[in-house]
Write a structure and sequence with these properties.
The complex is a heterodimer of chains A (344) and B (247).
Chain A: E1 4-7, H1 8-21, E2 23-30, E3 33-38, E4 64-70, E5 75-77, E6 84-89, H2 91-105, H3 111-118, E7 120-125, E8 150-155, E9 158-163, H4 166-171, E10 178-179, H5 182-198, H6 207-216, H7 221-227, H8 236-239, E11 247-253, E12 260-266, E13 276-278, E14 284-286, H9 291-305, H10 307-310, H11 320-324, H12 332-342
Parallel strand pairs in A: 2-6, 6-7, 7-8
Antiparallel strand pairs in A: 1-9, 1-10, 2-3, 4-5, 4-12, 8-9, 11-12, 13-14
Chain B: E1 4-10, H1 16-21, H2 26-32, E2 36-40, E3 53-59, H3 65-77, E4 78-84, H4 86-90, H5 103-108, E5 133-135, H6 142-154, H7 165-171, H8 196-199, H9 216-225, H10 231-237
The chains are: A alpha+beta (344), B alpha/beta (247).
């Protein structure tokens, strides 16, 4: 597929035309932070964002998602995919989406997720500003970001647009694109390499080394106790994670008391009730009762267990968990470095 | 479905939780009235009852021995008792007085010795009678009250979140108070309210009480280190709605 170029002045008209033809979701400012939200005009789009509060996973797997609506006479599916262009997804989040794609597709395909996923065209974009807690340049480097339909990079004078799929090629119809010159393509490569160099926090180990050592540290209770001492079990690290995919399902009744909704809600394995189950006799058993074991479980999942499915860690290096943790103990760079150094 | 006979009673409280019930609006309330018959509710009607009640909503904390007899009388004729709002569930803000001696003078000045102001330790109503359900919050959550009513009407199991407010803030992408240079207690506060306060730029005061196993050492450290509070204020802060659990 040919790599294209769009002049800086042509960019806003392209985005506005796109907004006129379909729902477009992209990074927008929320006070001093950023969130993915539906664009009303090209002026809302902030491709210079560093990281969003929640990852773009929420477009396919919303924090609260109505699944089924019921009344006294009927039950109906309320999944209603909307054709969408998801614009400006950073490469670390492209990897996150690729991971949730695999996890929701394996075995029993989850159409509550896949419905909106398949109705969405993803335009990735190069990172212009690096978030302070980001370490995406050094984690899971053996896994290339895939699953997006096009990649957009800002360079001097405009944007280099690389379509990756026929859906990506089709988007270019909305703008005054021309074929990119070799110089423009090289400038885009340089811009993306420079952004990676600005990602200063790093885990200088291979994924296999990390997986092996984290798994081997399982029984070092004293270390996990120390690492998790200030854990609130608040689930913030889970809730902002691009690769967390656990959910709970609950029913609510409408005021009329004859109709209602079954919805799913993001769940979080750091919270106390997550691993609480009801036994045959009605008693409750919590198989991860202490916050240390829940804290450890998260690192086992992200750095070791899921590697078998994903081919690498279930961590994209976005740094959201590190930034969201008010006690500042969730940072994978700090925790994994502690484990690597303790067992070196 | 037979209508449930429901009644409201109040003890030491501002009665704001009962007022909150009237805030569903007329359409919603009228829909609800197809399923419930309100037999006593002094904020909204003059009739009272001494008969059987299906659901008694009890607001306010238990602060006098005379309250015990009245609570027992309500319990004896109610199939289900719901502790309604922070004061009834934990003692609420009234329990702050349990930690000081001069509150009457401080609040009422020269009038502090009036006999009706004499009261004892502020306790949750569960200190006097068995409570079947709790609707926490200051004021109580209207959505949660509706959920209790729905589950009672349908005979389905009641569930409320046991996780902290942080989960609800993150779900709605509220900017963390700590990222705004402020403090907050959402890390240890029970969720279920939908986290409206931080979304409006106000720290969570944990009006629904603390989660089980709340990490209070870490809370005090974070309130001081990141929230900029003094050690004394950090401890006092976390006692506002949870004076009993912290006593």
């Amino acid at each position: 597929m040919r790599t294209l170029f769009l002049g800086a002045r042509e960019f806003a008209p392209f985005v506005d035309l796109l907004i006129g033809s379909t729902r477009v979701i992209g990074p927008v400012a929320k006070r001093q932070k950023f969130v993915f939200a539906e664009l009303e005009s090209s002026g809302d789009l902030r491709l210079d964002y560093d990281v969003t509060i929640l990852p773009p996973k929420k477009v396919f797997f919303p924090p609260v998602q109505p699944l089924v609506c019921f009344d006294a006479a009927s039950v109906r599916d309320c999944i209603d995919p909307v054709p969408t262009v998801l614009l400006g997804v950073h490469p670390y989040d492209v990897k996150g989406i690729d991971m949730t794609d695999l996890l929701f597709r394996e075995r029993h395909a989850d159409w509550n997720y896949l419905g909106q996923r398949e109705a969405t065209t993803i335009v990735a974009s190069g990172v212009q500003s690096v978030a302070p807690r980001a370490f995406w340049a050094s984690i899971g480097t053996e896994i290339a970001p895939v699953g997006h339909d096009a990649f957009l990079t800002a360079i001097d004078g405009g944007y280099v647009f690389e379509p990756r799929t026929p859906k990506g090629v089709a988007l270019a119809r909305h703008g005054a694109f021309r074929e990119a010159t070799p110089e423009e393509i090289a400038a885009a490569e340089r811009a993306n390499a420079e952004a990676a160099e600005r990602c200063s926090r790093a885990l200088p180990y291979t994924s296999a080394e990390i997986a092996e050592r984290v798994r081997a540290a399982f029984r070092d209770e004293a270390m996990w106790d120390a690492l998790a001492l200030d854990c609130f079990s608040c689930g913030s690290c889970n809730t902002v994670c691009p690769t967390c995919y656990c959910f709970d399902v609950r029913d609510t009744w409408n005021l009329d008391q004859t109709s209602g909704t079954r919805s799913r809600y993001w769940d979080a394995c750091l919270t106390r009730e997550f691993a609480s189950v009801t036994m045959a006799g009605g008693e409750k058993e919590n198989f991860r009762e202490h916050h240390q074991s829940r804290f450890r479980h998260r690192f086992m999942r992200k750095a070791a267990y899921l590697n078998e499915k994903l081919g690498g860690p279930a961590c994209t290096g976005c740094g959201r968990c590190a930034a969201a943790c008010t006690a500042d103990i969730a940072d994978p760079v700090r925790v994994i470095t502690t484990i690597m150094e303790a067992t070196a | 479905m037979a209508q449930l006979r429901i009644a409201f009673f109040d003890f030491a409280s501002c009665e704001g939780c009962q007022i909150e019930f009237t805030n569903y609006g007329d359409v919603a309330t009228l829909q609800l009235l197809e399923h419930v018959e309100i037999v006593e509710f002094r904020e909204a009607m003059t009739e009272t009852t001494d008969g059987r009640i299906d659901v008694a909503f009890v607001e306010g904390s238990f602060t006098r021995e005379a309250d015990r007899a009245r609570l027992q009388e309500i319990r004896a004729r109610a199939r289900t008792v719901v502790a309604y709002g922070a004061c009834a569930c934990t003692g609420g803000i009234n329990a702050l007085k349990n930690h000081q001696d001069d509150f009457a003078e401080y609040v009422y000045g020269d009038a502090a010795r009036m006999p009706h102001l004499r009261s004892g330790t502020a306790r949750p109503i569960s200190a006097a009678i068995k409570v079947d359900y709790e609707v926490r919050g200051c004021p109580m959550s209207k959505d949660e009250l509706l959920l209790v009513l729905s589950n009672l009407i349908h005979g389905t199991e009641h569930w409320v979140p046991t996780y902290p407010v942080c989960v609800e803030c993150k779900r709605r992408e509220t900017i963390c108070r700590y990222d705004e240079g402020d403090h907050c207690m959402g890390q240890v506060a029970r969720a279920g309210c939908g986290a409206p306060c931080p979304a409006d730029g106000v720290p969570c005061e944990a009006c629904r009480g603390f989660v089980e196993d709340a990490n209070l050492n870490a809370l005090e450290r974070v309130l001081v280190d990141r929230g900029g509070l003094s050690q004394r204020r950090a401890v006092g802060k976390s006692r506002m709605f949870t004076a009993n659990p912290r006593s």
